[in-house]
Amino acid sequence: MNSEQMKQFEKAKKLSAENKWRDAAAIFLDLRNQVDDEEIMIWATKALYNSNQFKLAYQVAVQSPQVFANDLDFLVQVCLKAQHFISTRAMILRQPGEVANKLLPLVQDAEAKYRQEFKTTVQNQLRAFYHLGDYPLVEQRKRLLAADQLSLADFMVGAKFLLRDPFTQQFVKADILNILQQIKCQEEIAMLCIDEKEHQIVPAKLPIAYQNPLIAECQKILKDQLEQTDPQILRALLIQLDLQAILLNPLIDEVITDPKEWVSVMLKRATTGEYSSENKHIIHWQEKLNQFIDKLQ
Question: Superkingdom of the source (predicted)?
Answer without folding.
Answer: Bacteria
